[in-house]
Predict the 3D structure of the following.
Amino acid sequence: MTLRRSIISLILTSVAATTLAPTALAEESDDAPNDAAICSLYEPIDKYQLLRRLSLDLRHRLPSYEAYRQLDGEDTVPDSVVEDYLQSDEFRETIRRYHRKLLWPNISNVQLATVGFILRNSNTTTGGPPKEPNGLVYLNNPQRSVKYRGGTNIHSCQDKPQTSIQPDYKLGETPTCETVVDKGVEYCLDGYVEMKPYWESDPNKTIKLCAFEAQTAATATQKNGPPNGNGPVETVSCNDPVSYNNPQCGCGPNASYCWGGDVPAAVLESMEEQIMRTVDDHTIGGRAYSEMLTTSEVYTTDRLAFFQRFLAPMSGPERTYNTWHEGDGALPDNPDYTSTTWYATTRGDGHSGILTLPAYTLRFQTNRGRANRFRISFTNSYFVPSSEPDTEGCSETTDNLSERCTCRYCHITLEPLAAHFAGIAEAGTTLVDSFEMDRPECITNSQKPGFDPWCGRFWVTDPDADNAGRLITHQYAQEIPSVQAAIDAGPRGLAQSAIDDGSFARGTVQHVFSHFVGREMKLDLSSVEDETPLLDELAQQFQAEDDFVALVKRIVELDAYRRIR
């Protein structure tokens, strides 16, 4: 026991000496703190450790044995090695990973498709391509199915060609059905047609699409308007959610109006790649980094163009709103969904770099969320609410959060920032600058028959609310001048302001420093370890050069990076 106690005592004494010695030495020195009092965390690492760190941080892989041996005659890692790393393909992926952490562009859980326009396989209960050779593909739309096939719920067609029911049938026509009794219920069922859908790149690969869903009509007639669609007969587009219940409409040419295969996931992946290509262009591509927030140029592909032209219009108000707007740039007439070629296009003034790309506006679906992410990602600013009670000069019940007690601490700042994004649909990607400012007809009970669901999506419907009937994003614009000014400036105005006042440069420096050094900068003017002068210097250089790769190079050349941490 005596020996054991002696060992424990020795360990504790050693630990105490390690942790307390710097402070004790500092107190005894007239020049405290001094280099001798600093622990090993502040000692430079050797050249082999530095090479390992540089390779892992810039390329995400270890150096080769040969790379280590090449340092044998060197004092430190040569600049040429760092330059090679910065120009490598691995560095491109490193910068992408950094920006994924910064922007959170993963939108894989976003629901783009209205359920009623999703094709599914008759052998399964999930959407997607046929999972069995004889699988029948049909539309997940109860209203259309019941109106055409009868019964009380969704039913697929028969597993036989439509031409066996209707010998003169032509692809795209409204098919003739035949009476079938299934589990005691009488249906009138069509057959299938073999056709190549838009998502199949293999010209020899077809699906067995039910003939009713294979209709290619561009328009149909129906009664529109309240109550319950009993208004006058009108012509409607089959490529519009207004035709949701119309049995005269199918999935269009090549099933272009419906979601099939792995299309939802593939479109979302393309949106994430789109934002990453903009990042590439303004980092390793050599373009000014700040222009990533303001550029009108965007990379796109026919897959996204196909989505905008044919699929996005089919989403109702319960899903994300992504309808094409002329400010998005021109669309090709017949985009090839299977094309993987990316090309540049120009968008209108309502857009502003990555701030209005789908991967940003769908990831942060409210204007407040978009503004808050902007502050965090690009100015390194966070809301810190007051710890004091808030009761004077505020209201506990007002809908205006910039005047509500406690809430106003952040919303006085947040509401004007959020207003910069008022021109982009919340939970969507569409420019809404052409929407009516006031719609008195939207001031109604949302449960009332014939209520327009788009009213509840974009306009204030509560008759007792402030400025009832007004666009939700503009509800308090007249009362708060800073909100109206932000709406007028748009997201580009927000970005340009941060670029001009230097907050973008300082925020970027802090983020890059934290990422590569592994800690936050020490910004405490009262501390001897204060790094505010370093931040000022790096931010000034970065703002002048606007070069992201040059900033990374400066960071990894710092003593703070080249010490053991």
Remarks:
- The two ends are 38 Å apart (CA to CA).
- The CA atoms of residues 145 and 154 lie 6 Å apart.
